[in-house]
């Protein structure tokens, strides 16, 4: 027995030791083989992972498509917000009186004019196939003010008559919805009568106050939005009349002189340089110096944030 133990310790060629080694290797090999998934299982796992990845990509793509569609609908025909920094100058009688503020106001107005002129010129140059050919797109600035005047009168008359079809045709979606909601709130027993008595300031109105073109839809670089602000001075008369008798409701007659700043908007294609018809975006107010400086501070802060100047953006 002692000799058998000694032989086991000293030699690897002993039959019992070789048999034990072969058994250990067989068990180890069997265990290693059992830990590896079968071919069918691997195929199933890969197929499941592929389906999950495809579903995730399809979901992300569908969300992206929905966002693109939402943006396209929002910016359709020139919709969207009024361009940031739009400067609508006040009449001279209402501009700042202090010399420093007056100069600051005029410099701000000049900067905005240069911005507008540059945006229009850039788009015009872009529409030139070559430097020796004429631009395919024309601004036609002289036609903007008369167009705004005619469209604004048509809008007022349609609003007074409760004509939603015309309002939806000449106004952009959000503005048309507001006017339609105001029509729905009217007393059904009354009608609205409206009249433009006269246009005022023939030498100065209607006047184009702002005209610029910019890319606003981040998901569609093929189109740009063109916006124009036109000042219109007029005397307007409005009243409510009884639907049954046609008589004017006592105390409803109003006669007022107004300066309205009408915003027109439309889209232009950057490939074909074709434009959609002008539509009324709404109205805005004239820009005061305080309002301009506040908006400028917000715009500068946002631009600094996007540029990564966090130190400047937080000041």
In short:
By secondary structure, this protein is α+β, with helices and mostly antiparallel strands. It has 9 helices and 5 strands; from the N terminus they run αααααααβββββαα.
Describe the structure.
It is a single chain. The chain is of the alpha+beta class and 315 residues long. It has helices spanning 2-10, 15-35, 39-74, 99-126, 144-161, 164-170, 173-184, 289-306, 310-313, and strands at residues 190-199, 207-214, 223-242, 254-269, 279-284. It has one domain: Nuclear Transport Factor 2, Chain: A (Roll), CATH 3.10.450. Helices cover 49% and strands 19% of the residues. Strands 1, 2, 3, 4 and 5 form a 5-stranded antiparallel sheet that branches.
SSE topology sketch:
Blueprint: H1 2-10, H2 15-35, H3 39-74, H4 99-126, H5 144-161, H6 164-170, H7 173-184, E1 190-199, E2 207-214, E3 223-242, E4 254-269, E5 279-284, H8 289-306, H9 310-313
Antiparallel strand pairs: 1-3, 2-3, 3-4, 4-5
